[in-house]
Design brief:
Layout: E1 6-9, E2 28-36, E3 42-48, E4 53-57, E5 61-65
Antiparallel strand pairs: 1-2, 1-5, 2-3, 3-4
């Protein structure tokens, strides 16, 4: 995963919050920035298709198209 990649947010069904909309919407976005959050973990700053920007753990993201 690198800056510019298009990603899909993969929600873990075991971590569904009662306040989450159901069914879960597949969120797509573009990686703006990457950051190491631990010895073996990273987070990505994502701009989602609805314009929202959020930091998301890369373990919950799937690259669907590599950026140039």
């Amino acid at each position: 995963m690198k800056v510019g990649d298009m990603v899909k947010f993969k929600a873990d069904p075991t971590e569904i919050d009662i306040n989450m909309p159901f069914p879960l919407v597949q969120e797509h976005g573009v990686v703006l920035q990457l950051s190491r959050t631990g010895h073996e973990t990273k987070s990505a700053k994502i701009m989602f298709n609805d314009g929202e920007v959020a930091w998301i753990g890369t373990n919950t993201l799937e690259v669907i198209s590599e950026g140039g």
